[in-house]
Amino acid sequence: MIIKEVIDLIEDFAPTKYAEDFDNVGLLVGDSSTEVSGALITLDTLEATIDEAIAKNCNLVISFHPIIFSGLKKLTGKDYVQRTILKAIKNNIAIYAIHTALDNQYKGVNDIICEKIGLKNRQILIPRKNSIKKLTTFVPCQDSETVRDALFAAGAGSIGNYDNCSFNVIGKGSFKGNEDSNPVIGKKGEVHYEEESQIGITYPAHLESKILKNLFKAHPYEEVAYEIHSLENNNQHLGMGMIGELETETDEKTFLNQLKETFKTGCVRHSKLLNKPIKKVAVLGGSGAFAINNAKAAGANIYITADLKYHDFYKAEEKLVLADIGHYESEQFTKNLLYSFLSKKISSFALILADTNTNPIHYL
């Protein structure tokens, strides 16, 4: 396989279109047409990660965090970012990063946190907006099933746990082709009326080019009439954070100690304990202070995240407990998630979980 084929698999799972605007995802270093000898899967890409890739004959590093985040104006090796990039280039090692595209996936970063905690009835904490579109097109009745099936095959018509969803109205369309036209039905220069089906169908925004390709291929008309609208609907299967419930409620200290053990963290920083049972739990891997109000609004008893600052803890306002388990600790299982997904898709080269511990924080 070449690198592009691996990237296509990853982005079918976690489309980079849904990465946050501030992020830097995708192929950061390397040529996408290069054949892959092996892929090292890691949370972070550092010099030690590149050394491990060299030792294990991997010419592709699949990283959660991007090593290049802001613009680089020079490559002189004066800091750890530049040294890592230079070492990768010298050794023909490509670097790919997925980051917030995977954060926003329903079966992504936060889902695996929920799994480790044992949460059920999971839902997205902050559903993504402006990620659903609607296509309306007009098709001769005798061809409507063919066109619908082509749209379904491209991924349109999925709503939550349902697929092949569409709305259809029968009506009468009219058209008149000019002298340069080549109508499939009717004659050029004459007004033609045709019994048509109006098909309305929704789809995820990242599939638009594929869906339009299938529409044009399956539609019988020379000129295809269609409309596309962006919907305001929240996407319940895409977005930041998750919220779920414990099978059995537990007391705060027991739950915090379980967190410390499960995520192997040196400490759990938390807000004031409220002496209330923990049942409803919100999570957001990585830096999650921005979602404290969302966790409160969702009725969470505790919100688990990382990188909370001093004043962030005041925002608990005795409505819930805030628990900071550490950035690395909250995302440490992400590389296992990527490995599990790719190992079901790839058998032509070695997929290797990185042994390098990239956590920059240590505890006494």
TrEMBL record:
Q: Where does a divalent metal cation bind?
A: 65, 103, 327, 331
Keywords in alphabetical order, please. Answer: Metal-binding
One of its Pfam families is DUF34_NIF3
The record's listing under InterPro entries reads: DUF34/NIF3, DUF34/NIF3_bac, DUF34/NIF3_sf, N-reg_PII/ATP_PRibTrfase_C
Question: GO: which molecular function terms?
Answer: metal ion binding
Q: Which GO terms describe its cellular component?
A: cytoplasm
Segments spanning the bilayer are none
Q: Does the keyword Metal-binding feature in the UniProt annotation?
A: yes
Protein origin, superkingdom: Bacteria
Q: Which family does the record claim for this protein?
A: Belongs to the GTP cyclohydrolase I type 2/NIF3 family.
Listed under subunit, the entry gives:
Homohexamer.
Protein name, per record: GTP cyclohydrolase 1 type 2 homolog
